[in-house]
TrEMBL record:
Cross-referenced InterPro entries: ABC2_TM (IPR013525), ABC2_TM_bact-type (IPR047817), ABC_2_transport (IPR000412), Nod_factor_ABC_transporter (IPR051784)
Domain ABC transmembrane type-2: 39-273
Keyword check for Transmembrane helix: yes
Taxonomic superkingdom: Bacteria
Keywords: Antibiotic resistance, Cell membrane, Membrane, Transmembrane, Transmembrane helix, Transport
Annotated protein name in UniProt: Transport permease protein
Membrane-crossing residue ranges in chain numbering: 39-59, 71-88, 109-142, 154-177, 184-203, 247-270
Length: 275
């Protein structure tokens, strides 16, 4: 009489993927890259600090803030928002490099959830941006910037800044997967700089020609910058108009719209990668 043998070996293909756990593991892999090669983060921070010093102390004396107030107090929240936008290039470059070197294809061959790779990149880049924001806020305190509101308003301002970065993450992931050629990074830089400067980061829209000021006011970066200024208790540079009364609403809705558009596009681009 023979007894049937029961095997306890489970095929990797039968293992149920856990996107959140796998995303954390991939985020840890990305964080190790920064520990080994921190120069990208360091140079990025140095560049943003240079912009603060350049505009705050070299040009700031010649810039008046509508409604009154210190220019440094006006500038710093705008620079925080601009830093969240600049993170787009970092995300896009990292995703494009992984796709070009075949690392993304290796992840696709593993029995993991399809969302894990993008989720890992999002977690890692959001953590990096939170650290960069903390460093910039500390630097701002050292040169005289001060929030004048309570802890709840300050916390909400930080959440809205990171909310903008979260939306930029999915745009960066989509661009990195969709356009990985040698000129892709340059193309993103050409896109990011006009968007960053055609905003209220450095000057108020009220100092611009009417048509240009209207474009600047509807910039997502302007919405987040104005909301952060309001919540930090700093001069907003906006004395009238829709944005003056609805900055927090605009800063909440714009990233939601961008995420709703580019998160599905990023997911589809990942699934189509070298199919």
């Amino acid at each position: 009489m023979t007894t049937p043998t029961i095997t306890s070996t489970t095929s990797l293909r039968d293992r149920r993927p856990n996107a959140l756990r796998e995303g954390w593991l991939i985020a840890g892999r990305d964080a190790l890259h920064w520990v080994r090669e921190p120069w990208g983060i360091i140079f990025g921070l140095a560049f943003n600090i240079m912009l603060i010093l350049l505009f705050g102390f070299l040009f700031g004396g010649a810039i008046d803030v509508p409604g009154g107030g210190d220019y440094i107090a006006y500038l710093l929240p705008g620079m925080f928002a601009l830093t969240m936008l600049f993170g787009l290039e970092t995300t896009m470059t990292a995703m494009a490099e992984d796709a070009k070197r075949g690392i993304t294809d290796r992840f696709r061959s593993l029995p993991i959830a399809s969302a894990s790779v993008a989720l890992g990149r999002a977690i890692a880049d959001l953590a990096s941006s939170a650290l960069s924001l903390a460093v910039l806020m500390l630097g701002g305190l050292l040169i005289g910037w001060r929030p004048t509101t309570g802890p709840a308003e300050i916390a909400l301002a930080i959440v809205l800044l990171l909310w903008l970065r979260f939306a930029m993450l999915w745009l960066g992931i989509f661009l990195g997967l969709r356009f990985s050629g040698p000129g892709a990074t340059t193309a993103v830089q050409v896109l990011v700089w006009p968007v960053g400067f055609l905003s209220t980061v450095f000057v108020s829209a009220e100092t611009m020609p009417g048509w240009l000021g209207a474009i600047a006011e509807w910039n997502p970066v302007s919405a987040t910058a104005t909301a952060a200024r309001e919540l930090f208790g700093n001069p907003t540079g906006t004395t009238s108009g829709w944005l003056a009364e609805n900055a927090v609403l605009a800063a909440s809705v714009w990233p939601l719209v961008l995420t709703a558009v580019f998160l599905p596009l990023a997911t589809a681009a990942y699934r189509r990668l070298r199919r």
